[in-house]
């Protein structure tokens, strides 16, 4: 049971790196590789993985710094991290506006032009940028970062509650998730539908990640029979959700033989408010991944997937780069094809996108490691 508590950082980084690669190709219209990401096989996508691991990593970072420098230093570090994420959001949002603006000027017929909100930027540049700064406008891809910044900012309070009263903590999180649709209108937004990610709903994923790191004794069963029941249930959930995901992505398959009321009970699965089936699907697969971590399979994968580990380890840098790559590759493929690209053109764009992220992630990781080595080697000046 200590596998989750003591999971090596490389295993978490590998999973997060894969999720970031999925996020990149999922946001490229016409992508071929997007047909093979997690959203095609389960009722959730890489966003759930990213937010859950954000909670897990926040808990891990807090515990490590608390043990080394004390609770006060740990709280300050998380608050600084929240500010870093906010600044990263502003940078990413502005980059999305600028890249969309360039595509619009070049008359590239890519859907990213509208998704980046470049048309509003062209009409009111200053007002649009100020809306991004104020979190009112959250352009293409960048929309998960404001929520992430809020979660990290309140993490010190959440950590204290989760450690002391795990049952009350998770019950409070579920209650807030249930109330989330009625709370969404209170958030300022330039879109009538509100924030793309309702933080009152998505805090449930972050909270479960926190709890997995802080109190694994609370969430994981101790008895062998219960663990086997969990495994059997997770396999059933994963298989059922796989079948449902197949139908979800192919409505033409079920419309011919299913009664009309059946699909409306299951689909669509709103991402904004974190639909219950998305949570169930995630939990089923998460348990199976936990077993793979415990068995050492993920660790062995990480040993020969170093560049992907580096992407996960430097997730904030790679997220910004991935957002730029998504828009850039879509613009190039649509521009080359003069419309929606053919599969060979789209696949070439996918390969370039993944290669850029792998190369840049590796370069950034080596650069940061070199700086750490240089800092450790630098002699300390002792005052007389």
TrEMBL record:
<feature type="transmembrane region" description="Helical">
    <location>
        <begin position="85"/>
        <end position="105"/>
    </location>
</feature>
<feature type="transmembrane region" description="Helical">
    <location>
        <begin position="46"/>
        <end position="64"/>
    </location>
</feature>
<dbReference type="InterPro" id="IPR014550">
    <property type="entry name" value="UCP028704_OpgC"/>
</dbReference>
<feature type="transmembrane region" description="Helical">
    <location>
        <begin position="228"/>
        <end position="249"/>
    </location>
</feature>
<dbReference type="Pfam" id="PF10129">
    <property type="entry name" value="OpgC_C"/>
</dbReference>
<feature type="transmembrane region" description="Helical">
    <location>
        <begin position="314"/>
        <end position="337"/>
    </location>
</feature>
<feature type="transmembrane region" description="Helical">
    <location>
        <begin position="166"/>
        <end position="187"/>
    </location>
</feature>
<feature type="transmembrane region" description="Helical">
    <location>
        <begin position="275"/>
        <end position="293"/>
    </location>
</feature>
<feature type="transmembrane region" description="Helical">
    <location>
        <begin position="199"/>
        <end position="216"/>
    </location>
</feature>
<feature type="transmembrane region" description="Helical">
    <location>
        <begin position="12"/>
        <end position="34"/>
    </location>
</feature>
<keyword id="KW-0812">Transmembrane</keyword>
<protein>
    <recommendedName>
        <fullName>OpgC domain-containing protein</fullName>
    </recommendedName>
</protein>
<keyword id="KW-0472">Membrane</keyword>
<keyword id="KW-1133">Transmembrane helix</keyword>
<feature type="transmembrane region" description="Helical">
    <location>
        <begin position="343"/>
        <end position="364"/>
    </location>
</feature>
<feature type="transmembrane region" description="Helical">
    <location>
        <begin position="140"/>
        <end position="159"/>
    </location>
</feature>
């Amino acid at each position: 049971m200590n596998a989750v508590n003591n999971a090596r950082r490389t295993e978490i980084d590998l999973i997060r790196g894969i999720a970031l690669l999925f996020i990149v190709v999922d946001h490229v219209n016409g992508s071929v590789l997007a047909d093979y990401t997690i959203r095609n096989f389960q009722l959730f996508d890489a966003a759930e993985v990213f937010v859950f691991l954000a909670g897990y990593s926040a808990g891990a970072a807090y515990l490590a710094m608390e043990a080394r420098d004390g609770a006060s230093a740990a709280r300050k570090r998380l608050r600084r991290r929240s500010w870093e994420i906010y600044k990263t959001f502003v940078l990413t949002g502005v980059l999305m506006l600028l890249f969309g603006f360039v595509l619009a000027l070049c008359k590239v017929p890519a859907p990213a032009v509208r998704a980046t909100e470049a048309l509003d930027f062209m009409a009111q540049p200053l007002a649009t940028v100020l809306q991004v700064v104020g979190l009112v406008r959250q352009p293409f891809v960048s929309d998960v970062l404001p929520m992430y910044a809020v979660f990290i900012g309140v993490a010190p309070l959440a950590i204290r509650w989760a450690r002391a009263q795990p049952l009350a903590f998770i019950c409070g999180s579920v209650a807030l998730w249930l109330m989330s649709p009625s709370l969404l209108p209170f958030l300022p937004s330039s879109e009538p539908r509100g924030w793309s990610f309702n933080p009152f709903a998505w805090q449930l994923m972050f909270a479960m990640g926190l709890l997995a790191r802080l109190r694994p004794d609370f969430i994981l069963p101790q008895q062998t029979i219960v663990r086997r029941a969990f495994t059997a249930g997770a396999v059933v959930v994963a298989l059922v959700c796989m079948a449902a995901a197949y139908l979800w992505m192919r409505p033409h398959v079920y419309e011919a033989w299913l009664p009309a009321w059946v699909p409306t009970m299951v689909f669509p699965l709103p991402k904004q408010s974190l639909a219950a089936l998305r949570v169930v699907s995630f939990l089923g697969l998460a348990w199976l991944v936990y077993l793979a971590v415990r068995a050492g399979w993920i660790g062995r994968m990480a040993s020969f997937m170093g560049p992907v580990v580096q992407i996960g380890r430097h997730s904030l840098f790679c997220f910004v780069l991935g957002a730029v790559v998504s828009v850039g590759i879509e613009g190039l493929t649509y521009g080359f094809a003069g419309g929606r690209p053919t599969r060979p053109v789209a696949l070439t764009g996918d390969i370039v996108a993944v290669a850029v992220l792998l190369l840049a992630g590796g370069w950034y990781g080596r650069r940061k490691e070199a700086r750490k080595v240089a800092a450790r080697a630098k002699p300390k000046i002792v005052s007389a």
